[in-house]
Amino acid sequence: MGPVHVVGATVIDGSGCDPSSLDLTIENGRITRFGGSGENAERLDAGGLTMTPGLIDAHVHLGLSSPIRPHFSFQISAAEIAADIFAAAGATLDAGFTTVRDTGGIDGGVVTAIAKGKVRGPRVLSCGPVQCQIGGHGYYGAEWEPTELWSSHHIPGLCALSMMAGNADELRHNVREAFRRGASFLKLCVTGGVVGGHDRLSDTQFTVEEIAVAVQEAAARNTYVTVHAHNNEGIRNAVEAGVRCVEHGTSLDESTAALMADREVALVPTFAVVEQLLHDTAGAGLAESARDRANGVREQMAYALAVAKHAGVRIGLGSDLIGPAQDRRGKELSLRAALETPMEALVAATRTNADILGLSGHVGVITPGARADLVLWSGNPLEDPELFSDPTNAVLVIQAGEIVKDLR
């Protein structure tokens, strides 16, 4: 596209400042200026719409877009799994999310296919397969299945949920393999989880010394480690080892939050997946036991959010949706808005997430020089945050200056 002058929108720029009336010009995929346009700019009338930066989801699983249990028991073909992944990628873009951080499940081939424009989807940063302890969270093989057969569930170029390590040397090998496959950061599971195959929420996994191996390997590539962690012992182990981010943080207490704030470790809570599991466990391809695990987690996570906020922890936003129902990713913002304010939820999903992903100033804000990732909403989500939950309210989505969705 040539230069485009967007006029008439109410702009919420992602900084936390009050909305304003701004016209802006887009050239070569970036916002070049506010105010007047050049003579050759195409006019895009956004009167009556509210503009926000393109949303960012810091915790997605595009590779888990098929029902989980059938996916990992060879009941679904590679073709159908691919179709589900690409459908979820397109739905993510249509919901107004122009950048996501995939925290386990896809192979680098999916990232490349989207980046080349062969598949509709957001900009994707991926950890590749999650790093897990043998028998820990992230393993969904049958109890009788030897651990060494787990990698046969990977589909090269498409999906690879996790890699198992029994000691520090094996973990070092696995993280190097993840980087070889195109990972841009690393994720480790250091506690059990809600959607667990053979683990409990109270389990602590990997030692400080083992986690530190992954941190060392990530630092050698100028990137970072984030961890799946629900209990405080696992979180503290990870923080002591030098990780930069914690996913979930369900049971976070005051002293652990203070440690995270002191070490500048971010937190990404995930409320939408808990709602999903409580209301449609079967739809995600999981047993009813997952619903039992999810009971009470939302209340704990809400308390953890308040504790982290009080401690001054940098708090991002992630949906963690799994299974085929990934079309209403914006529900995470609506849920967060009910616990904080709509503005705080939006800033978490834009400027703060961009900072956590290492993209600060490039995405997540509306300012000259930033990439032109923009969403125009049919209403004001600060006045009605439920607008985020319905993708049809995102009437126009612009990614790197290109219109990728237009319902006007």
Automatic annotation (TrEMBL):
Alphabetical list of InterPro entries matching this protein: Amidohydro-rel, Metal-dep_hydrolase_composite, Metal_Hydrolase, Metallo-dep_Hydrolase, OTAase-like
Domain Amidohydrolase-related: 50-404
Domain of life, source organism: Bacteria
Transmembrane segments: none
Protein name: Peptidase M38
